[in-house]
Amino acid sequence: MSYHTWQIWGIILGLGAGSYLLRLSFLGLIGNRPMPEWVLRHLRYTAVAVMPGLITPLILFPQATDGQIEPVRLGAALATIAISLWTRNATLTILGGSAVLFGLHFTLG
Amino acid sequence: MTPISEYWRGARDGLPFILVIAPFGAVFGVVATEAGLDLAQVMGFSLLVIAGAAQFVAVQMMVENAPVLIVLAASLAVNLRMAMYSASLAPHLGALPFRKRAFISYLMVDQTYAPSILRYENRPELSPRARLGYFLGVASPIVPIWYLATWAGAVLGSAVPPGLPIDFAVPITFLALIMPMLRSPAHVVAALVSILGTLVFAFLPFNLGLLLAALLAMMAGAETERRLARRHAP
Fold first, then answer.
1. Residue B173 in domain
2. How far is Cα B136 from Cα B105, in angstroms, rounded to an integer?
3. A41 lies in a domain?
4. Which residue of chain A is at minimal alpha-carbon distance from B57?
5. Which range of residues forms the domain containing residue B90?
6. Count of A–B CB contacts within 8 Å?
7. How many domains is chain B built from?
């Protein structure tokens, strides 16, 4: 890494300010003003529209294996989905998914 | 359901995410320190940015000596989804005074947003103050642990033996966040479009594929909801 100190701080402050403005954007500007029903209908699907796409490449093409599909991670993901459907409990899902991940890692990996 | 009782409920719901935030923050501390950042800079990232994925992207590009503006563009693109979270929280938290919305904005990360939006949609009768209490409750175990874990990673170094699949803590948490949200056919359709869209648009730079996929997924979810409602209407 060959940056001046001020450049490093420029990145930190720029990324911090930019991220904060993205977070504040709609929540800060719109406030209590009513939004049309069709906008609200789209916003209801924000979380399920962003998060599955965010993790799909992490599950199918993990960087740690240079983007190769790999049974340990794929198996852990499927087990996590199954545990979530079965227990409907976030703590048990995270603990169970991690247990399967490390279990597969030490048996297959 | 007072603001106080919602706070404690939120804190309980946020607690399991410590299992992920702690190793993830520690790994960031280690990676950023090994990349050549000093302690103040490493902590600057975790205090001012609080967004794991964007921080990792920034540090990775800094290791490659990318131009400052490119580092900023690429890591901010990873955080564009926060604007979508902001829009989806606005109908629920818009009634709060500006300074409270400004504070919530600082604490807005995947793991605080997801449990909160689920709670608000399941309990529309909650008062704005109760909703604020819940959000702050979820953030209470998550955000301080993020700082602390980053500091521990930077100062103490990695106690995690190399080769462990620690990277996979993130997808596991996200699956735990997503699965409870799939509570109607429209939500399932949106999630499937999100997955397919990300794969189809994977060639786009700067994470733009994810944003495009997310927009299409929101449209697919909204359209499915509209059609199902019309079919059920008399």
1. no
2. 11
3. no
4. A15
5. 3-166
6. 287
7. 2
